[in-house]
Amino acid sequence: MIDKSLNNRFAITRPNFPVLIVLVFIIIIGIIGIPFGDPRFIIYAILIELLYISLAALIAKGYTKALYACIILSFLIIVGNSFVTAHIHRILTFSRPLNTLVLIIGGYILQGLLAYTSIVAIRNNNRSKSVLTSK
Question: Residue 85's closest CA among 46, 38, 30, 133?
């Protein structure tokens, strides 16, 4: 009985699973990094974390439109991090090592992975739809 109700709530398809894993890692890195960030921006960091949590929930429920939001959000985060002078200085000088590692891993590497896995998931979803309609 419990298994059927969980299957109805979550429809994690195979192409969406890597996106969900990357989102979970971004959430974990964000939770680790929030206490080390600038206190002036904690509210914004929490709002972005809530956005990632809601995207993960939508992906877990099987909504494919959330994949497009993941791509847009990842590019916005990468571009935003690249234009903040404090981030550039921190990366170049490694002045705060833990904060810099969280920034590089969560703000660039995982964001790039999120965009890549989302694009691959969209392509795989479109292929499976075209295979089903051609039969």
Answer: 38
Distance CA 126, CA 90 (A): 41
- Collapsing DSSP to helix, strand or coil, 94 comes out as coil
CA distance 18 to 118: 8
Q: Over pLDDT 70: what percentage of the chain?
A: 87
What pTM did the predictor assign?
0.85
> What is d(CA 70, CA 65) in angstroms, rounded to the nearest whole number?
9
**Phi/psi at 84 (5° precision):** -85, 120
Chain segment 67-111, per-residue pLDDT in tens? 999 999 999 999 999 998 988 888 889 888 988 999 999 999 999
The three-point CA angle 58-66-21 to 5° equals 65
Total residue count of the chain as it appears in this document: 135
Write b or e for each residue in 12-37: b if 16 or more Cβ atoms lie within 10 A of its Cβ, otherwise e. Answer: eeebbebbbebbebbbebbeebeeee
Q: Where are the alpha helices (DSSP H) in the chain?
A: 2-9, 17-33, 42-60, 65-83, 85-93, 97-104, 110-134
